[in-house]
Design a protein that fits this description.
The complex is a heterodimer of chains A (about 775) and B (about 120). Chain A is mainly α. Chain A is built from 29 helices and 9 strands. The chains are: A mainly alpha (about 775), B alpha+beta (about 120). Chain A: Pathway: Protein modification; protein ubiquitination. Chain A: Its main location: nucleus.
Chain lengths: ~775, ~120
């Protein structure tokens, strides 16, 4: 049936209401004719009031279904015509899928343009048809449970045009859309408005069975599949052709483009899906390859501090599940590797120097330690910078970096000693070139390394030793800096950790007060004044790291012995019940020596003083043998050798040794060097400075630490058991570990041994019946 | 404030210098022309919203002319008054008008009015 058969725009005489059917037919003819006029864009000749009234009357006279079906038929017919006359002729040339050539693209674009017009015409017409059939929509469609007429129009368009059974419109549409997108991906300019119109059309149409949009059912899956394939190929191509930074830039660009594409002409619901595809194909699948790219991957980026590239990698890889994990582990491995290298240079240095370690080259040991710490700090700085500039200070990365640092720092068994030496170096040198603020910031950084140390008790022991030397030899830059450092340690490890250190400071302070009092005491007293100025530092034996229980052997000169006696009387008079032991191995003395050229004031250790005083009784040129000195002074052999070395083999040769050489051997002869000259009036004879310990000392320190650990472990066990009264073995071990781990990692075997020791001493007992449970014995 | 709103709108219906819709109501024997405002009609009635839209409005001398032959002027007056002021007085009406009003309010999709008249009749 064609519209031409109908008489057009004819006004009929009013019908007699003799037959309802005739009335209906008459009304319907007019309406159908009107709809055709609307389709022909002739609506301006139509009267809304009349058409509405016609439809209203039909519905009122129970002819709603006839009306509805009639409308459906007219619209369907129209759309069939449109398909044949407009859509099919616009089909792009066959082979639209081979999108190489532009004509295809143009043909496709034209097809979309035609569809756009067809769709716009249809919707415009449907709006007008809806207007005149408003009564039908309100009254009939509702009760008959059929779609409103506008929706009916959409469904008809879907079935007659978009999913036409007669013409392959759907295939062409989908192919053209995908082709246009592909062209755009390949940097061709396409007319987005046409694409968008078709997409919007698909979005407005609903799939009857799924109630989803036709966009979702017909287009989206195909689009995603094609994209997946496209990016799979592209990913393989890019990874082969570009280096890591370029690759990531490309990926970044792609992600951006796809996001833009969705925003401009696809549905927002597609955004996460296409993003996932690009992320999967371009990032997930090539994670390792990109990270490991030889001259441009993650490690080279770190090496060359390519913060922008690293930042880009962080952002990109963060989009996929494994991305950050892979980055983290690669960086951590790299840190471990660098750390290992630092450790190795140090060990190779120390072993290389092992041979001449005793040869008075005292600085080297400390230098190695300082260099190690400095290198670790530099490494830390570097990765802090990476963390800050490229990784958005990501906590997870920080944790993983920290673990890597912890790992290699603890691989170096000397790290507690090194760190303490480094602090020692800074607190001693401070004034030489660095301001106090600079020292402070260095120490702050050092604390971060300290945090990584597992064996904090070992550090504590070294720190005490170094601090003791600094305090007693007056080597500290400033009290403030020392106290600042202790403050920092306190923040890290708590009060317990630093009480002894603070006790050492206290001793120093009290001693200086005591000395003031002692001078007053001497001024007032009738006693004979000592011939020398005596300055005594009284140390509380439990605070200080040295063994202070007994005086080392040494025959002091009588003047000194006498002065010591005077002080002892003074001190014990004020503090009864205390015991003083003299630590002559730690003292220093200022003595005046007359040489041929001039007089010099020598600052020497007590032992050196004792040695030098022996030469007072000797004639010029008269020599003393090693054995003589040893016998007369009674200084322990190791100390004696070291002090003789300082006097005879170091920078200032106060004594001349025969035969010459760097080592002190039994049978050596020593002469007072009358010809000694030096530019300065006041000369400090370097005593052995703090340095990396020798193997023997290390072993000793180790043993002391082990011993201390035994006590600490027992103390922890008793503390816990006293509180709980009874406890199962594993729980007890866990609790002990928890309490001690801030200082060191106790191993379960050690704890077990201590438990057994405590059982032996009847602090604990095994529960009767269950041997795995312990009871506390009050 | 609704009372004064309603009163002011009634005045607007009777005395206005900016009418832009002319409505011819009734058949040849009994035709009457009303003047009204497109914006008010369209706001108050979905029927007029469509009828007076750009797609359908027929203009003569700047005013939209609308013809409604199947409603009598008396009834349309009640409808216009209802549309403008939201008020209606059924008690002083000819009973035949009331029935016609019911039918017209259904055609013109004045649901509220239709319900009211229906309740009144029951």
């Amino acid at each position: 049936m064609s519209s031409r058969k109908q008489p057009k725009g004819k006004i009929r005489p009013p019908k007699k209401p003799n037959s309802a059917d005739a009335q209906f037919n008459d009304n319907w003819d007019r309406l159908a004719q009107a709809i055709r006029e609307i389709h022909k864009k002739n609506a301006s000749i139509l009267s809304f009031e009349e058409l509405y009234r016609n439809a209203y009357n039909m519905v009122l006279h129970k002819n709603g279904d006839k009306l509805y079906n009639g409308v459906r038929e007219v619209i369907t017919q129209h759309l069939e015509e449109v398909a044949v006359s407009q859509v099919v002729p616009a089909f792009p040339l066959s082979g639209a899928s081979s999108s190489q050539t532009n004509p295809n693209g143009a043909g496709g674009a034209n097809f979309l343009k035609v569809l756009k017009t067809v769709w716009e015409d249809h919707t415009t017409c449907m709006l007008m048809i809806r207007d005149i059939l408003m009564y039908m929509d309100r009254v009939y469609a509702k009760t008959a449970n059929v779609p409103l007429v506008y929706d009916l129009g959409l469904d008809l368009f879907r079935d007659t045009i978009v999913r036409s059974q007669n013409y392959p419109i759907q295939n062409h549409l989908l192919e053209v859309l995908l082709q246009q997108i592909k062209l755009e991906r390949e940097n061709e300019i396409i007319d987005r408005t046409n694409v968008k119109a078709s997409i919007d059309m698909l979005l407005e149409l609903t799939d009857a069975s799924t109630k989803d949009t036709v966009y979702a059912t017909d287009f989206e899956n195909k689009f995603l599949e094609t994209s997946s394939e496209y990016y799979r190929v592209e990913g393989q191509m890019l990874v082969g052709e570009y280096d890591a930074p370029e690759y990531m830039k490309k990926v970044d660009k792609r992600l951006n483009e796809e996001e833009q594409r969705v925003r401009h002409y696809l549905s927002q619901t597609t955004e996460p899906k296409i993003r996932n595809i690009v992320e999967e194909e371009l990032i997930s699948k090539h994670l390792k390859t990109v990270i490991e790219m030889e001259n441009s991957g993650l490690i080279p980026m770190l090496r060359n501090e390519k913060m922008d590239d690293l930042g880009r990698m962080y952002k990109l890889f963060g989009r996929v599940v494994k991305g950050h994990d892979e980055m983290k582990s690669a960086i951590s491995d790299y840190i471990r590797e660098l750390g290992k290298a630092i450790n190795e240079t140090v060990t190779s240095n120390t072993t290389a120097e092992g041979g001449n370690a005793a040869s008075g080259d005292k600085q080297t040991g400390a230098t190695v330690a300082v260099r190690w710490v400095q290198e670790v700090l530099d490494l830390k700085d570097k990765f802090d910078k990476v963390q800050n500039l490229a990784l958005s200070n990501d906590k997870a990365f920080q944790t993983s970096f920290n673990e890597a640092f912890e790992y290699f720092i603890n691989k170096n068994s000397k790290s507690p000693e090194f760190i303490s030496l480094f602090i020692d170096d800074n607190l001693k040198k401070g004034l030489k070139g660095k301001t106090e603020e600079e020292v402070d910031s260095v120490l702050d950084k050092t604390i971060t390394l300290f945090r990584f140390i597992g064996e904090k008790d070992v550090f504590e022991r070294y720190y005490k030793q170094h601090l003791a030397k600094r305090l007693l030899l007056g080597r500290s830059v400033s009290d403030d800096a020392e106290r600042g450092m202790i403050g920092k340690l306190k923040v890290e490890c708590g009060y317990q950790f630093t009480t002894k250190l603070e006790g050492m400071f206290n001793d120093m302070r009290i001693s200086s007060d005591t000395m003031t009092d002692f001078k007053e005491y001497l001024d007032k007293s009738v006693l004979e004044k000592p011939k020398l100025d005596l300055s005594v530092t009284v140390l509380t034996s439990t605070f200080w790291p040295m063994n202070l229980s007994a005086s080392p052997r040494c025959n002091l000169p009588p003047e000194l012995t006498k002065a010591c006696g005077t002080f002892q009387n003074f001190y014990l008079g004020r503090h009864s019940g205390r015991r003083l032991t003299w630590q002559s191995n730690m003292g220093t003395a200022d003595i005046r020596g007359s040489f041929k050229a001039r007089k010099h004031e020598l600052n020497v250790s007590t032992y050196q003083m004792v040695i030098l005083l022996m030469f007072n009784d000797k004639q010029d040129g008269e020599s003393l043998s090693y054995e003589q000195i040893k016998g007369e002074s009674d200084i322990p052999e190791a100390d004696l050798k070291r002090n003789l070395q300082s006097l005879a083999c170091a920078k200032y040769k106060i004594l001349v040794k025969e035969p010459k050489g760097k080592e002190i051997n039994p049978g050596d002869q020593f002469n007072f060097n009358n010809d000694f000259t030096a530019p300065l009036q006041r000369i400090k004879i370097q005593t052995v400075a703090s340095k990396v310990e020798s193997e023997g000392e290390r072993k000793e320190t180790r043993e002391k630490v082990e011993e201390a650990r035994k006590h600490q472990t027992e103390a922890a066990i008793v503390r816990i058991m006293k509180d709980r009264k009874t406890m199962e073995h594993n729980l007890l071990i866990a609790e002990v570990v928890k309490q001690l781990q801030s200082r060191f990692m106790p191993n379960p075997a050690l704890i077990k041994k201590r438990i057994e020791a405590l059982i032996e001493r009847e602090y604990l007992e095994r529960a009767t019946g269950d041997r795995r449970v312990y009871n506390y014995l009050a | 404030f609704f009372t004064s709103l309603s009163k002011d709108f009634s005045v607007l219906l009777d005395h206005s210098d900016d009418y832009n819709v002319i409505i011819r109501v009734g058949d040849e024997k009994n035709e009457k022309t009303f003047q009204a405002h497109s914006v008010i009609l369209r706001a108050r009635s979905p029927y007029f919203k469509r009828a007076l839209s750009n797609d359908w409005a027929r203009k003569e001398d700047g005013s939209t002319v609308f013809t409604k032959p199947n409603v009598s002027p008396a009834v349309f007056e009640i409808i216009l008054k209802y549309i403008y002021s939201g008020t209606i007085d059924l008690n002083n009406q000819d009973p035949s008008h009331i029935l016609e009003l019911l039918i017209a309010s259904d055609e013109l999709l004045l649901q509220e009015l239709f319900n009211h008249v229906q309740d009144y009749l029951l």
